[in-house]
Amino acid sequence: MHDPHPLFPAADWDPSLRIALYPGTFDPITNGHIDIIERGLTLFDRIIVTIAINVQKEPLFSLEERIAMIEACFSGNRRITVGYTDGLIVDYALGNKARAIIRGLRAVSDFDYEFQLALMNRRLERSVETVFLMTAFRWIYISSSNIKNAARCRGKITGLVPEHVERALQEKFA
Ligand code: COA
């Protein structure tokens, strides 16, 4: 299920643009992800928020729902686009002229996994660099899973996700 439409067709591509991918499952997008994206925009001209379709994960939200939720967070910001792939992230990066992958680090526990992922991606494609940003302290404990768990049990998740994501979670668990 490769995204059949490269987001920046070669003809439109300005070689001076610094383009990065921000990959993840985004089931759903949280304020922690948004923080990373907003800070990534200080380093890159464009960020492609890329939903990685992982057959081992069973997402709560469909691909279409996740795309719509991310787009609603950034509507009007032409520097951010949303894509998806079930292939290699580095291939999707090359196909969209991105030279960097952004990943957020929340705690030391993220490091091992991220270190392996970055080295594997480097092994697969040397021209694509991984850039790590520290997640802001206020979002350090949140993940899509713990927000879903709280929402499932009617816990208060206000302020951890955008309002439209909070509503979508409430509807799922109504
Ligand atoms: N704020 C809040 N939560 C955050 C966060 C932040 N800043 N950063 C990460 N998280 C959470 C996510 O919500 C997610 O939570 P969950 O596990 O409860 O759903 C968790 O951390 C994992 O993060 P995510 O970024 O979604 O990673 P992932 O492990 O689902 O996917 C990919 C990682 C997509 C980068 C990786 O699987 C991949 O590259 N896949 C494509 C295939 C490929 O190229 N493989 C080659 C390399 S082996």
Could you say what the CATH architecture is? 3-Layer(aba) Sandwich
Annotated CATH topology = Rossmann fold
Number of helices: 6
The CATH class assignment is Alpha Beta
Uncertain residue segments = none
The total number of structural domains is: 1
Bound molecules: coenzyme A
Bin the strand percentage: 15-25%
Principal-axes geometry comes out as: globular
Order of helices and strands: EHEHEHEHEHH
Helical content class: 25-40%
How many strands appear in the DSSP assignment? 5
Overall description:
With 174 residues, the chain is an alpha/beta fold. It has a single domain, classed as Rossmann fold (3-Layer(aba) Sandwich). Strands 3-2-1-4-5 form a 5-stranded parallel sheet, sandwiched between helices. Strand 1, helix 1 and strand 2 form a beta-alpha-beta unit. The radius of gyration is 16 Å and the shape is globular. Coenzyme A binds next to strand 1, helix 1, helix 4 and helix 5.
How do the strands and helices of this protein lay out in sequence?
Elements: E1 19-24, H1 31-40, E2 46-52, H2 63-74, E3 80-85, H3 89-95, E4 100-105, H4 108-124, E5 129-134, H5 144-152, H6 163-172
Parallel strand pairs: 1-2, 1-4, 2-3, 4-5
Bound molecules: coenzyme A.
Task: For the structure shown, list the relevant keywords.
174 residues, Rossmann fold, binds coenzyme A, alpha/beta, 37% helix, 6 helices
